[in-house]
Amino acid sequence: FGITPVLRTEVYGFQFTPVLRYEYNSVYQHTGDASLSVARQVSENFSAALSAGYQHQFAPIMASQGYYAGTSVVLPNPEITVERDRIAALSLNYASEIFSLHSQIFYNLISNRAVYVSKSFTQAKYENVPSASIVGETLDVQLSPVDDLNFRLGGTVLRAWDRTTGREFAYKPRLQGYSSVNWSFYKDATITLEEEFLGKRLINLSDEQSLSPYAQTNLRVEAKLAGGVVIFKIDNLLNEGAFVNSGFPIPGRLFFVGYRL
To answer: Running DSSP on this structure, what letter comes out for residue 6?
Structure first.
């Protein structure tokens, strides 16, 4: 169980939000973190926020994947210790009736980062990296030139690396992004065409093996009917072949029909 007190106060147009968190855990070490964000509405359409924080936590993979391949355990991998993150971010937001933009620049300085390391073709495990950094930027842009049409484009550029060796982390692409077009072609029906892109990913922290970049196109149609919504979806519309992770190919073209109340 845990407790998270949050306080918001405004001084001279700046909104301050300090957050504290403490978590008691019967299996792992007790953890806690603290953060502070300062935000300001610069104009009717533009706002900015600066945040910084310290996190002291176990990575989410501890309970479910902190094990050696081929074994089964209940408790987390005893070789992985608690992770400590120092985080800073700057966010910029602009929004009008037809256009919006969100951008965030972030930097994480991490101690004891849990990373996936492949030991052989049949054996892999998570290990701690003593010191690591992640730096990058996210961008999301939306344009609605008319009421029934919306364009969206976004992505993340980042670099994540072991500060001791200089090697980049496995499965942390330098570039990933998305784009979509949403058209309400009838008063109760919409069609969405989206593209997802994932850049080159290293397979292992210890060598240069990598997976190739890939893009996937998806199509989705929704229409209101009888108090619910009929959904027709095609994932991987162009039936592209690629690997998300080593040994795990993406599915081929998938069709889905459903009804949501």
So the answer is: B
